[in-house]
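Figure 3 (text version): structure tokens given as input.
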């Protein structure tokens, strides 16, 4: 079975290896473009090879087609293996650090004998790096932070990556005769932002079935470690609940259960000295006279106390969302047109979309000039005149400039229905400077929503220095909305900060930050963050219909 995400990773690594060898940049770029084409268009690469349609993809020449065909047929790409042999592993490793591109990496490796992350870290700690031309003290500090972040993240994987892997594997296991039930548990089911393994709970009564599952796993190529637990159908619910809860939650839950006469002994669930079989987790809670606690909330024992009082909120669900906020189009750095993004949004069952391309300071992302804003608004007006039962709002993702101001003069800002204010540059401010910058933007009467508030990229870039609690308090003080950015690499606000925002009365917008129509559905990842942050539909502005949404935005 070919996994597109692995092929995309290989193609991007080839590009980096070519750059490290000093090859023609256009040659390297071709592999990046190929990876982007596969990802943005959700290409089933195995089908493309089998149907001989690779050649139909833009930029897929004969040589690239041969390499991909080899990968599909053998699981390997000899060209990639050859490149890895030609480039020192330490040199490639150094390029995994933020702010170090191939040119800087080559300089460090060949001119200063910095051949590993450990040596790079040592060079930063000993103030060697800051004296090398092209670096300096500030970059040295950023590189050191990036190294430490990378080391701390080692062995962790994104929830989205784990989800794809776990669902594929789960479906394969379900095909094995003798398997009654398979559930993905652990950090995945509680929706931790990152996880270190995939946990599977499998119900079967046959030892031979266990052996078949183990044989499948031995031949299954997975970057993420897989842990499997077997049980029989009578005890499945007990272990499902246990394996879907944190250690500290489990400890308190089992203590409470024991006080009510429920325990697990001798491979059986015992209630009031009788063996019982549970149909589902809800029944487990009912026996204990507790309100059901969804897996996302099983982090801290406090949830048990709230459950005793039957005050667990009715958490937001996918179907509660009415509109999609924060999408980019080919007016800036998105792939699809406004009609294409609107059509996909309608197809997913939503009633409105907020187009929010980049503002003019984001030149790297094709930010809109004032003239482009005017032209885009004309297109949106024309489309709205043609569409019934669906609304396209005029939005912008305005850069928060270093001084905290937004990116257009007042007369332009007035023309937008929705303004999302985000930091995209000058990340290296002090904590107090960055906090003041963002709060100043929240004070702006044209700001409606704060985008990706901490700027983090999970497993890649730590948040910039900011007092996020002060920012959340400012949003409460000035009546502004904060985004849960649903990009799998961001998930920003974090669920912990979502809880704090709710406590302060700050409304949330669950936003996919889509740059192509295929990622609009990332909004449902954000729902999981919202649920883990204890949000109800009333806490989320895009659970409003289009009229109420617009009126709410205009009241800010």
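Below: residues designed for each position.
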């Amino acid at each position: 079975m070919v996994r597109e995400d692995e092929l995309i990773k290989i193609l991007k690594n080839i590009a980096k290896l070519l750059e490290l060898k000093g090859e023609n940049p256009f040659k390297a770029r071709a592999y990046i473009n190929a990876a982007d084409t596969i990802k943005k268009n959700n290409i089933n690469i195995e089908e493309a090879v089998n149907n001989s349609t690779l050649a139909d993809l833009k930029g897929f020449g004969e040589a690239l087609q041969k390499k991909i065909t080899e990968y599909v047929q053998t699981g390997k790409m000899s060209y990639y293996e050859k490149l890895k042999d030609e480039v020192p592993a330490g040199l490639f490793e150094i390029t995994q650090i933020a702010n170090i591109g191939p040119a800087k990496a080559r300089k460090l490796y060949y001119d200063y004998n910095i051949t590993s992350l450990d040596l790079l870290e040592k060079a930063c700690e000993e103030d060697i790096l800051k004296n090398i031309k092209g670096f300096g003290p500030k970059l040295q500090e950023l590189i050191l932070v990036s190294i430490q972040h990378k080391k701390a993240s080692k062995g962790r994987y994104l929830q989205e990556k784990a989800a794809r892997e776990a669902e594929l594997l789960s479906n394969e296991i379900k095909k094995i005769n003798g398997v009654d039930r398979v559930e993905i548990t652990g950090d995945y089911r509680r929706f931790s932002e990152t996880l270190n393994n995939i946990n599977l709970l499998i119900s079967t009564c046959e030892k031979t079935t266990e052996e078949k599952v183990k044989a499948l796993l031995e031949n299954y190529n997975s970057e993420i470690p897989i842990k499997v637990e077997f049980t029989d159908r009578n005890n499945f619910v007990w272990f499902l609940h246990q394996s879907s809860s944190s250690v500290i939650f489990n400890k308190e839950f089992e203590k409470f259960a024991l006080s009510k006469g429920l325990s697990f002994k001798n491979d059986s669930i015992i209630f009031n000295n009788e063996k019982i079989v549970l149909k589902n987790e809800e029944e487990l809670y009912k026996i204990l006279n507790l309100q059901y606690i969804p897996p996302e909330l099983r982090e801290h024992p406090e949830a048990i106390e709230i459950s005793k009082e039957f005050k667990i909120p009715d958490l937001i669900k996918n179907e509660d969302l009415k509109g999609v906020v924060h999408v980019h189009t080919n007016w800036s750095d998105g792939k699809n047109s406004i009609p294409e993004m609107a059509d996909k949004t309608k197809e997913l069952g939503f009633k409105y979309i907020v187009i929010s391309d980049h503002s003019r300071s984001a030149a790297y992302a094709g930010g809109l000039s004032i003239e482009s804003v005017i032209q885009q608004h004309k297109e949106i007006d024309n489309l709205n005149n043609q569409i019934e039962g669906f609304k396209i709002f005029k939005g912008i993702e305005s850069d928060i400039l270093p001084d905290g101001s937004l990116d257009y003069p007042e007369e332009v800002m007035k023309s937008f229905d929705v303004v999302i204010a985000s930091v995209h540059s000058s990340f290296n401010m002090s904590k107090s400077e960055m906090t003041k910058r963002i709060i100043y933007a929240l004070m702006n009467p044209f700001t409606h929503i704060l985008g990706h508030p901490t700027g983090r990229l999970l497993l890649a870039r730590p948040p910039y220095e900011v007092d996020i609690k002060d920012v959340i308090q400012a949003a409460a003080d000035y009546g502004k909305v904060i985004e849960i950015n649903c990009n799998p690499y961001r998930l920003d606000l974090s669920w912990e900060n979502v809880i704090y925002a709710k406590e302060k009365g700050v409304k949330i917008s669950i936003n996919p930050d889509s740059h192509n129509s295929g990622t609009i559905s990332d909004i449902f990842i954000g729902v999981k963050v919202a649920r883990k942050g204890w949000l109800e539909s009333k806490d989320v502005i895009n659970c409003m219909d289009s009229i109420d949404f617009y009126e709410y935005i205009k009241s800010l």
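The radius of gyration is 26 Å.
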